[in-house]
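Bit of a strange request maybe. I'm writing a small parser for structure token strings and I need a real example to test against, not something I typed by hand. Could someone generate the tokens for this chain?
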Amino acid sequence: MKIKAYSSFYNYYKELPDRIQKKVDKQIKYLSMNVNYPSLHTKKMKGFRNIWETRIDKNYRMTFEIINDTIFLRVVGNHEEALNKP
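Reply from user aminoacidic:
Good idea to test on real output. This should exercise your parser:
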């Protein structure tokens, strides 16, 4: 799948520590190969149409939506922030 990101995603990404940015980059690579890659723990978000969440690590999450054959990255941040404003 193709990966694109909303401009707001980049703003969230820039605020992350370097070590987390590296983890995000790795997870984006896995996401492009297979949305259901095991370490992503991908699941549909309840209460939101077509928005999914995936795990970066124990404390960080990323949200995205799939439109046709493209994944649009929405939010990345700590667990609470990412899931409260997907």
